[in-house]
Design goal:
nine-stranded mixed beta sheet; six-stranded parallel beta sheet; 17 helices; binds 6-O-phosphono-beta-D-fructofuranose; glycosyltransferase
Amino acid sequence: MSRTIIVSNRLPTKVLRTEESLTFQASEGGLATGLGSIYRQEGNVWVGWPGLFVEDANEEAYVREQLRDDSMVPVFLTEPEIRDFYEGFSNSTLWPTFHYFSQYATYEQSHWEAYVAVNEKFCQAVLALAGLEDTIWVHDYQLLLLPAMLRQARPEATIGFFLHIPFPSYELIRVLPWRKELLEGMLGADLLGFHTFGYMRHFLSAVSQLLGFSSQNGQIETGARTVLVDAFPMGIDYERYVQAAASEAAVQHEAVYREALREVRVILSIDRLDYSKGIAQRLRAFELLIQRYPEWREQVSLIMVVVPSRDQVAQYAALKEEIDELVGRINAQYRTITWTPIHYFYRSFPLEELASLYRLAEVALVTPMRDGMNLVAKEFVASKADGRGVLILSERAGAARELSDALIINPTDTGQLAEAMHDALVMPEDEQQLRMGAMQALVRQYNVFAWAKLFMARLAYSKMKQHTLATE
Ligand code: F6P
């Protein structure tokens, strides 16, 4: 039987070290939560890093054993690899560049070498596992070189690649010293998927300008092979969020929060700690809201969840300090004995508690500076069973291409964002339901299962097309 081997840097389960033992927990981030629902189907396997440095062969064997039952195969990274590949090239070179934060990017040859070596490590792990009939589906910017490495070892293999973050304009890509190698790495796939048509267009432009390969209708001719490129906006496991929001646990948590908050209305913000998410700008906009509209003081609170992420990378640590400082200052300035403007949580929440926050919130702020898709926007929509609630969404999140019934804003325009919060808080209920209903229909239909099915069907088609061309 042929299987799909999913390959991503991070596994959907991460291992944590406590004083006495190793514990296993769900990973954060769109990729893990989004794909987490589909990989178990039909005997699929997921290859990736379990998120910590294991100290010896015993620990390695233990982790391998525990993950095996859940169809996961760990790739272990050494401490220098975590530093140079993960924190270095992946998150200090590619991440800032692809999110239009070039000013934060570093260009270290040693980080590049670690990136090549770790992609090679993943390649060996996949080759040890994949049968000739299996489909290999590689994910995200940490593994851009892997498709070509696999292709070299297995010229006939079926290889798909999906990028979960934006693909930026050629002007940003051209700055990277290793730009050609990165594009050539991606072109080892049969099919390359992006969240939006815009990202795909940027990729085709970079391939044409840097490698001289032309394309027509999303089909790149590399000379040796034809590679298909297409846009596949990723969805969520809609029913999972509907059920979580309807669960007894979510209802109970909501009741407890509601009682503690009394009559105060809630605006919600949930992100991983990341400068691309626009968290500091959002805080300033909330402050502006209560300055411009003092009538909202004591009436509205912002609940802000920031999930710890990449805090060993300097920019992330600095952002954490900035957020701590901003929240402290705003709360100190405006709070009263009975009202806290911002309830700030720096930790992750289990699904039922997240669901209760989605239930509680009248407004969700999803206002990244750049975001490949942003699944929080879709999770909020899926959780609003009564059709009420307003989504405020950045025009620079991939999700804005689909969720046009949100209040779409420019996240750098603090004034516009403050006005959007005000508009959301006074929006009549029938307008809320009209907008939310339209978004729910879309998010329900283009869910993560439909997304994966479409990608797989297109991948099978690209393979069939190549066979036809080869035999002509
Ligand atoms: O969706 C983008 C992404 O970088 C994923 O590749 C990743 O798993 C997730 O965000 C969380 O990031 P990290 O794995 O660095 O914690």
